[in-house]
Amino acid sequence: MTRLHTMTRSRISSFISKSATISLLTLALTAAPAAAQNQTDSIALLRGVAVSADLVGLAQIAFSDYGQYEAAARVNLKDRYFPVVEIGYGKADADDPSTKLRYKTSAPYWRVGLDFNIAKNKHDDYRIYAGFRYAMTYYKFDVSSTDLKDPVWGDDVQFGAEGVKANYHWMEGVFGVDAKIAGPLRLGWSFRYRRRIAHNDGTMGGTWYVPGYGKQGGSRMGGTFNVIFEM
Q: For 67, which of 60, 112, 122, 169 could close a Cys bridge (C-beta 3.0–4.6 Å)?
C-alpha cells in the first residue's frame, strides 16, 4: 500500500510539473505579441508634417522650352504611411520641328496619393518609399504655324487655334528615398512611372505638352529631386 501511495504522489507531481511548464510557455507566447503590439501602439499617430519643392521642374524651365513649378505637402503617420498632395504649374512655349507647329500653354495640375515607408527600420533618418499618385489637369493651349505649304498649290497656309480646352488624368507609380541633412532639412528624390487613364485633347488633336505630365508621346518615366522641410 505504501508503495502504491508513493507511485501515485510521483505521478501527481510529474503532472503538476508538466502543467506548470505548459502554462509558462503559453503565457510567454501570448505575452510576446502583446508586448510588440504595445510598442507599436506607443508611437504617436501624427509624427510630423513636411513641405517640399521640386528642383527638376525648375531646371527644365531654365534650360528647355517647357517645365513646371511644383510643391508638395506630406503628413507622417507612425513613420509608415505618408499621405501626399502635390500642386504645380506647368508651362510650355515651344516649336515642334516634326509638325512645324508652335505650341503654348500654362496651367495648374494636382496630384494626390500615398507613400509607404518600406525601410526595415521605420524610424531611421533615412526612408525608402513606394507609393502611387492620381493626377489631373484642366488646361487651355494655343497652336499656330506660318510655315505650312498647301500640298497641291504650294501656297502658304495659315493654321492655328487659341484657347483650346483639354484635360488629362493619369496614375503614377512612385519609388523614392529621402534623408535627414540637418534639423528640419531633408533631401530626396523620386522615380515616377506614368500611365494615362483618361483624356480630352480638344478639337486640335494630341497636345504637345500636358502640364504636370510632360510631352505626349515621350517617355512615361519621370522623376523629382526635392528639398524638404519636415516639422
A: 60
Rounded CA gap, 184 and 178, in Å? 12
Contact partners, residue 54, CB within 8 Å, separation at least 6 = 68, 70, 71, 72, 88, 224, 225, 226
pLDDT digits over 69-123, tens only?
Answer: 999 999 999 999 999 999 999 999 998 777 778 899 999 999 999 999 999 999 9
Average model confidence (pLDDT) for the chain? 84
d(CA 49, CA 134): 21
- The H-assigned helical ranges of 48-207 are 56-63
CA-CA-CA-CA dihedral for 210, 216, 222, 224, to nearest 10: -20
CA–CA gap between residue 221 and residue 98 (Å, rounded): 22
Dihedral of alpha carbons 135, 140, 145, 151, sign = positive
Residue 11: exposure state from Cβ atoms within 10 A (0-12, 13-18, ≥19): exposed
Query: What are 181's three cell numbers?
Result: 541633412
Model confidence pLDDT, tens digit, residues 139-159: 999 988 866 666 666 666 667
Measured over the CA atoms of residue 79, residue 81, residue 83 and residue 88, the dihedral's sign is positive
Residue 20 has pLDDT above 50, yes or no: no
